[in-house]
Amino acid sequence: MRTIGRLVNLIRGAFARWMGRREQRNPDAVYEAAIQERLERYVKLRQAAAGVLYLRGKLAAQLERESAELARLGRQLDLAVARDDDPAALALIRRRDGLAADVRRLESELTQLTREAEGAKDNLVTFQDEIAHLRDERVRTLARLASAQARLRFHETLAGFSTAADVRALEEVRDHVERLVAETQLAFEAEDGDLARRLDHIREAEAETGARAQLEELKRTRRAELPAPPLGLPAAAR
Q1: Which end of the chain offers a freer environment for a tag, N or C, measured as fewer CB atoms within 10 Å?
Q2: What pLDDT, in 10s, does the model give residues 109-122?
Q3: What is the dihedral of CA 222, 227, 231, 237, to 10 degrees?
Q4: How far apart are CA 87 and CA 179, in angstroms?
Q5: Could you tell me if 150 and 215 lie in one domain?
Q6: Residue 178 belongs to domain spanning
Q7: Burial 58-96 (b: 16+ CB within 10 A, else e)
Q8: How far apart are CA 102 and CA 1, in angstroms?
Q9: pTM of model > 0.85
């Protein structure tokens, strides 16, 4: 028996979990079922309240008739007493007492039915308010659910993009561009250095050429300034 009980509990728990997952996937159906259940209870309560109101009306009419009959018996009793008709007075007293007991019973029942009818009316109003609240809550909850699902889909869509790969690719491109710029700058600087060296060689050659020209000019000027050797001297003496 304990094994059967445990098996029943296991099946009941599994079914409850399965039902819970189904309900979470379809909250609109859960709200609709709750609203329909309260509507059914509201209809039953309204029918019961209608029965209570009908019975109260019936008792009220009966109470009115018997109260009128009790008043009529009172007048007849007064008349019988005035005529010293004891047998009639005794009969009227018995009828009056029995009718008075019925009137008191009807009054008690009518009071109780009146309280029940008022309670039924209050319950009807409560059920109406609860149904309206559930309908409003369903609208708000489903709207929040739709918003949350949309945000979740947006987040999942963003998460599906490999932003890390894009960032790495951009960094590699930037590094490549920076290396090219550096190599280009070095090439220009190397070319500028070679050009500067060639220009220096040209300037140095030009300076040397100028210096030699000046030296040759000085030599010519000096030779021109030296006195001419005497005539008749041999060339060696010169």
Answers
A1: N
A2: 999 988 888 888 88
A3: -60
A4: 136
A5: no
A6: 172-222
A7: ebeeebeebbeebeebeebbeebeeeeeeeebeebeeeb
A8: 58
A9: no
